Amino acid sequence: MLVAIGVALMYGEVVRARFGLLDDYTFLDLAYITPVIDETGRPINNFIREGVFRRIGTIDGLAIARLFGLVSIAAVGACLSLTWLRLGASRFESIAMTLCLLSLPVFQVVASWAQLLVALWPIVFAYFAARLIEGRPGLSPRRRGLRIGLASLLLLAGLMLYQPATMMFFVFVAIDRIAGAA
Question: Where does residue 45 rank: exposed (0-12), middle (13-18), buried (19+ CB within 10 A)?
């Protein structure tokens, strides 16, 4: 909850302000002219973005898309905070380190650029995929297989949204391995 409040304090102004960046205008126009053909290899991203941009329709409506971006930043923050807690950080340390990371320029770009409304959700999918495959003694082969299958589906969905963000899966797995070795 404190992470979400921190995100709102850092980036909340982008929801109130009336502006669009160059690509935002392009996607607003394209949403009405022609369906976006998936030339980027991100079919789910294109489908969601086109649907949202078609419904918001105006520069004023871009604030709604940026709000989705803020929600995704808060969700990534929750995953990062939980990761710090899993590593033994105190609640205060976890929130402080998470808010420091969420103030980095990449998150500033996501907050202000409406067309990136779903770009960070693959990090959330990657976090849960990593949680699903972590070693748990005593799992039956069937349950282990189901967990791996669900993790694979989460990663596939992440890849179809935004491939680079999905690669955070390997960061979360590496953190688990390093923490387990310590």
Answer: buried
What's the chain's average pLDDT?
Answer: 86
Contact assessment for residue 110 and residue 116, using Cβ atoms and an 8 Å cutoff: yes
Candidates 78, 65, 80, 79; CA nearest to 110 is: 65
In contact, 52 and 117? CB cutoff 8 Å: yes
CA distance 94 to 79: 11
Whether residue 42 contacts residue 162, with contact meaning beta carbons closer than 8 Å, is answered with yes
pLDDT at residue 44, as a whole number: 82
Tell me which DSSP letter residue 134 carries.
S
pTM score, whole prediction: 0.87
Residue 162 phi, psi dihedral angles, 5° rounding: -165, 105
Give the residue-averaged pLDDT of 77-100: 95
